[in-house]
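INFO batch 0412 | record 1 of 1 | parsing
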Amino acid sequence: MNPPEDRARIARHFTSVKAIEDAIGESMGPTDWLTIAQSRIDSFAEASGDDQWIHVDPERARRGPFGAAIAHGYLLLSLIPLFTSQLYTANTGSLRLNYGLNRVRFPGVARVEDRIRARAVFEALRPHPLGLLLSTTYTIEAEGSDTPACVAEGVSLLVT
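INFO prediction complete | emitting tokens
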């Protein structure tokens, strides 16, 4: 049997703007662990055109500064929607759109075969002509590392 921290997390379900407002500042998560496979890194390299050796040449990367191939920072960023589905749903209007990012940093790394997971915190909710802008900070951590692999403040437009 898997330890409790490895069991699927139940996402928080927000059905009103008030519920989101009440949750501002609260940590959600963590998500389930996700193993970073070389095949995922290679697929991302092919899709993005970023085929730098530190990502796609495992033998050379073993001799590099991190001792293994590492996931692209933008690959980690692209996993936020996957993690979000494990963290929360927000059914407060007609739809939710990705509005952008305020700040993104990659202070650590996620090596090939590392397990990563995410946490999220709602930071702010402010008006927009089409609804509300929800700012959420996502922190993606690699197992065994004290430094996050990615910290990103995403902004969603909650269309009402």
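INFO post-check: The beta strands are 12-14, 27-28, 34-35, 88-90, 95-105, 115-128, 131-142, 150-159.
INFO record closed
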